[in-house]
Protein: LFA3 protein
Organism: Tyrannus savana
Amino acid sequence: VAPIYSEDAFGIVGETFTFPVEINQRIEEIIWKKNKDKVAERDGQNPPTYFTPLQGRSVLKENGNLTIFNLEKSDAGTYELHYWDSVNDGYLTFILDVLDPPSEPKISHSIEGDNVVLNCTSDFPWPVTYAWKISNDPRSHWSQEFSIPIEDIDATKKATCFITFSQTEKSSEISLIQCIS
């Protein structure tokens, strides 16, 4: 019996998700199951067959890669890939978790010395990437906290905090003048 190898994977509702499969040899037959029910199969070079949960929103490639479009909460579960080459068969197991997208980040501000310090927070339970953008400045500042000299602030300037997780981005904006009034 092949050793059962299991990998945790996750995506966000609405995203496109591809199971990270890399099989380098030529595969004769592929079967993907979700919670023990068949969801996709492919025999040699023939076009793949898809079953109810993934019909019309998935693609199974010859190398075993299965992509699901427009992820739904109900896609969460244990997926098993069973494949045969001309000699052996192999198994891969993935436990897919589908998360709600993060909500918009919250921005707080304080004054420290001659600077306004902006802080961006997310209630998302996984680590997110933070970035700040200031109007009229093409650069992004990749940090959760960002400080701006008070003398650089005028009534037109806004700061936007972006949080990114996987392929999903959310943002919030603040007018900088309200931070010093």
